[in-house]
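Hey, quick one: can you model this chain's 3D structure?
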Amino acid sequence: MGGYEEKESTRMLEPPDVQDAQIIACLEAAYGLSITEIAFLPLGADVDTAVYRVVADDTTQYFLKLRRGLFPEVTVTIPHWLAEAGMQHLIAPLATQTTGALWTQLAPFTVILYPFVTGRSGWEVELSQHQWIELGVGLQALYTSVVPSELMRTIPHETYTPVWRDRVKAFPRQVADHGIDDPVAAHLARLLQVKHATIHHLVARAEQLASLLVHRPLERCLCHGDIHVGNILIDTTNRLYLVDWDTLVMAPKERDLMFIGGGVGGMWNRDHEVGWFYQGYGQAKINLTALTYYRYERIVQDIAVTCEQLLGTSEGGDDRVALLGQFASQFEPNNVVDIAYATDQRLHAE
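Sure thing. Here's the predicted structure for all 350 residues.
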């Protein structure tokens, strides 16, 4: 995630168990900054990541990310390299003053600092025709970038892993084996029963397509991995940025392109938006097997994440209700399930 201010989020996070004074001391030691203000920002959907706005004594604002647990260095080294190579549509991490590294440590967190860009995410503002074209130009630049070999070795590669499908398969058994007292979790359990046949089909079809793609040598390129509306930032000058590079992967381009017209989050599901995007991206031969797989797999992943968050804990308050609503909306007309089915029909018609 690049440094930015977002007015709205689909999930609120609580501040981590670390004192502001500790964070300030860390930033002053590593970056040579004199911090006068720090404010937790309740943004994002990753329970292991917390973000802050910090202000230095010269009034410069920064966006701070604290990441708990495993830290893939590629999530900062590649955006930094892309920015150095001239890519315009991202916000690169800042180097420390002490070592020149792109991060520092404040146990148990990795600390990453970015410039602060005030703007609105794609949840809040529809992209204009110009911005759709700009997004197409930006992704085309990303996919044609030639990453140095020493960095290429650090980038994960697509494996078509069954991990999300396996988790979704386990949830009906988990629901049956345990009594559920929490009303939100109980509502989700009922939805899982009502949508059982649809969910079973989503998982089974994703598995079928994955088994085909494992043996199909599709060209791979550097993909963002999670190009949805929440990872688009429009600043106050209407400039577009791609943010949150935590899912970087070498994969077929369809890994990203499935979001264009895919309806994730109930948005980006209109034909004219797709047309505008490809005005910027250019002509592209789309592999429908890969596109269909990624659309099914994304739904399966979102189902797994929702179930883990709502069945595995009763924490979250009003955020739990919002997450339940997002789960249910996937099955509404012209949302992700409908669009994935339509993509599959196109594949069958080939």
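One thing worth noting: The CA atoms of residues 63 and 146 lie 29 Å apart.
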